[in-house]
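// run 5 | inverse folding | seed 20
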């Protein structure tokens, strides 16, 4: 169980989101990349922010708009729950793969954590 102070800070505010296309493009061109399960991650170190930031990409290959929106919500929620385990400062863009359409929240969360572990993005992992 987390301390009360940490639980209070589990929000996912606008400042924690990557929204500008230039930032997405920069991470794709200059950042590191790894895939695992239903996700692909592009990430890079950042000195501008003191917290991890997330961008989510869901293409039309995944399915209808309902499926894409559900996918984005699941990815954001998984990130929100584990944001304190990610080392700072880093910006991450998660790209959903077609296989995500049939996965549950728990399966997506497991794939995301394994991907972060392999990439060395977790505080307790070695890189």
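// decoded
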């Amino acid at each position: 169980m987390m301390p009360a102070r940490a639980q209070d800070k589990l929000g996912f505010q606008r400042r924690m989101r990557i929204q500008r296309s230039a930032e997405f493009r920069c991470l794709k061109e200059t950042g590191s990349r790894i895939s695992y399960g239903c996700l692909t991650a592009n990430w890079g170190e950042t000195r501008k922010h003191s917290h991890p930031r997330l961008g989510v990409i869901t293409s039309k290959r995944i399915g209808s708009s309902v499926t894409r929106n559900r996918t984005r919500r699941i990815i954001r929620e998984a990130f929100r729950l584990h944001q304190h385990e990610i080392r700072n400062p880093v910006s991450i863009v998660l790209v959903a793969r077609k296989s995500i359409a049939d996965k549950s929240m728990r399966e997506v969360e497991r794939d995301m954590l394994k991907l972060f572990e392999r990439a060395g993005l977790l505080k307790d992992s070695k890189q």
